[in-house]
């Protein structure tokens, strides 16, 4: 499910040889905001100090100043991706904020069938901040169960994230047992394979479910590259890390990207009531483009 972006409150590693200055923190913060829309508050300085210190050790670069200049000069953009990975914390689980998946199964998909969608043209669903894959795989389970009861129902699931690190985890589709506590028993048997021997304590999503999700790296601040209109967008627990201006920009883009009659789901801790938009609210954190 979606994902929580920005630094959390983990204890920073001790970096004895240097400290991130206020001026350099400001430089990194402005760069991250410019490229991703993520706003790093001043109190995140020590955590950024720890995260970037680990990256400096990997690259062999001797100071934060040199590292900043290296990121700026890197025309490939590859090191910027690593920097973004450093400031992204991803927490998610299967069936997190389950009311959204219940609404998807009980209202959204049946409405599509009544309108004749999913037969000729496939339904397109997008997990726009998919983190390590639990959200889009949960979507796939819910939609596949619905499709089994409605022969001929066609759909496709896109899953994107800005972090290459979590996308790699999502595509491996291997999870510890503690991540599957909310998955119904029948789904566990149908869609997961339990590890044995050295893999005990882990599960892997079966190929039949993995093949239903297409993963791709994507920055929500970029232009949406898909020509076809989207029917369902999940963007949960991401906008809380954006300022109001960025939130407004993103909501406008989501509205334009959706088919008329399409749905947007945001996180339970989020709200778009203070933003200008054309959505109709159908549940606490679920909206429809009518």
Sum this structure up briefly.
The chain has 2 domains: 22-86, Chemotaxis Receptor Methyltransferase Cher, domain 1 (Orthogonal Bundle), CATH 1.10.155; 99-288, 3-Layer(aba) Sandwich (Rossmann fold).
Quick tags:
single chain; alpha/beta; Chemotaxis Receptor Methyltransferase Cher, domain 1; Rossmann fold; 2 domains; 7-stranded mixed beta sheet; 17% strand; globular
Please provide a written account of the structure:
By secondary structure, this protein is an alpha/beta fold. The chain folds into 2 domains: 22-86, Chemotaxis receptor methyltransferase CheR, N-terminal domain (Chemotaxis Receptor Methyltransferase Cher, domain 1, Orthogonal Bundle); 99-288, Vaccinia Virus protein VP39 (Rossmann fold, 3-Layer(aba) Sandwich), CATH 3.40.50.150. It has helices at residues 22-36, 45-59, 64-73, 78-86, 99-114, 134-148, 164-172, 185-191, 207-210, 244-257; strands spanning 123-127, 155-161, 174-176, 192-194, 202-205, 213-217, 230-235, 258-266, 280-283, 286-288. A 7-stranded mixed beta sheet has the order 6-2-1-7-8-10-9. The longest helix has 16 residues, at 99-114.
């Amino acid at each position: 499910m979606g994902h929580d972006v920005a630094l959390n409150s983990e204890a920073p590693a001790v970096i004895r040889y240097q400290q991130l200055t206020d001026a350099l923190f400001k430089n990194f913060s402005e760069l991250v905001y410019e490229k991703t829309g993520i706003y790093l508050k001043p109190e995140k300085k020590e955590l950024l100090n720890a995260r970037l210190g680990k990256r400096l050790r990997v690259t062999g670069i001797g100071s934060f100043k040199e590292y900043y200049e290296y990121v700026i000069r890197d025309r490939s953009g590859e090191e910027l991706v690593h920097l973004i990975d450093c400031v992204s914390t991803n927490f998610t689980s299967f069936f997190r904020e389950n009311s959204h998946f219940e609404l998807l199964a009980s209202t959204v998909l049946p409405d599509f069938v009544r309108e004749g969608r999913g037969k000729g043209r496939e339904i397109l669903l997008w997990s726009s901040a998919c983190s390590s894959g639990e959200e889009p795989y949960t979507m796939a389970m819910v939609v596949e169960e619905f499709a089994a009861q409605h022969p001929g129902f066609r759909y496709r699931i896109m899953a994107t994230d800005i972090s290459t690190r979590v996308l790699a985890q999502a595509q491996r589709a291997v999870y510890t047992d503690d991540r599957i506590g909310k998955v119904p028993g029948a789904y566990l048997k149908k869609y997961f394979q339990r590890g044995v021997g050295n893999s005990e304590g882990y599960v892997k999503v079966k190929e039949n479910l993995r093949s239903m999700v297409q993963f791709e790296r994507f920055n929500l601040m970029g232009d949406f590259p898909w020509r076809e209109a989207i029917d369902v967008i999940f963007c949960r627990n991401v906008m809380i890390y954006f300022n109001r201006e960025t939130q407004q920009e993103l909501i406008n883009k989501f509205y334009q990207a959706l088919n008329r009659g399409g749905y947007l789901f945001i996180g339970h801790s989020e709200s778009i009531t203070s933003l200008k938009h054309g959505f109709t609210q159908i549940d606490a954190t679920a909206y429809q483009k009518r």
